[in-house]
Amino acid sequence: QSVSTIVTMSKKRGKSAVARKQPTLDESELLNDGSWMTYPVLIHAVKSYALKYATEALVEASGGRRRKFQVITKVEADEVCKEAIKAKGKSKDPIMGALFEACLSGVEDGALTSHGYAAFVQMKLKQSKQAELLRQAEEVEARLQAQQERMGLTSADRKTPKSASSKGKSQKGKKGAKGVDDGDVPGKKKVTMKTRKEEAAYIDYIEDEPITGASQYCLLQGFSSDPKFVTSMQECGACLGAVVSVITDDDDDDD
Questions:
Q1: Which residues contact 124 (CB under 8 A, 6 or more apart)?
Q2: How far apart, in whole angstroms, are the C-alpha atoms of residue 221 and residue 43?
Q3: Where are the beta strands (DSSP E) in the chain?
Q4: If we measure between CA atoms, which residue out of 142, 117, 149, 131 comes closest to residue 228?
Q5: Rounded distance, CA 241 to CA 223, Å?
């Protein structure tokens, strides 16, 4: 059995302490396998200041600078549910269509049930996993392609070996007036320029997560008010890894 830890945090003292441990079911069968582990964390903040600080922290976490972190909120689930009901569960976008189907699997009187919220979260985590695995595969392919280009091997060279004479003919047009390749000119460096669109899309990622940690961390906000949510997450195969209870000394002030 895995262990779910409830952590209490103090803003002023900057301390954290383990309050108690609860046994839970085994980790997600649908999201985890031998090479991937998803770690959902339920954020619990009730009092005003604690909720304020937790919300601010989650906004920072959802900024997109950490690949392994994502934030899913109850508000987001409610909005998708409204769209799903309005569209009768149909969408041209397969990703949104899967979320619609997950939401509609648990709806009563026009609102999501505990199962509906859990199904929505489970589908979001599954989609995030698929997207990240695809990104990693494309990154590996791009790295191999760049390495092969540095070695002077193009895709055509790998598929159809060419003789030395044909290779010389193909490179004839790449030489300058004196028969010297541009890359061989002394003092000339290759410059890679980025377009404005590429610069705008560039993200300076913060990758300081432990190498031996989870493949994906998910912070869940707004779901702690539902006492059946934890059980529903287990039933959906997305067991919570931890519950973090955020408190602050400011909530005890008379102000």
A1: 70, 72, 99, 218
A2: 5
A3: 3-9, 16-23, 38-44, 69-73, 107-108, 111-112, 216-221, 242-246
A4: 117
A5: 15
Any idea what DSSP says for residue 193? P
pTM over 0.70: no
The tokens describing 98, both together, are 């899967």
| CA dist list (Å): 192 to 45, 80, 152, 181, 198 | 48, 42, 18, 18, 12
**Lookup: tokens for 171:** 């490179």
Which residues in the chain land under pLDDT 70? 1-30, 62, 64, 153-204, 251-255
Phi then psi for 99, rounded to 5 degrees?
A: -70, -40
Distance CA 71, CA 217 (A): 9
The structure tokens 């589908």 sit at 123
Alpha-carbon distance of 152 to 52, in angstroms, equals: 56
Distance of CA 119 to the CA centre of its chain: 17
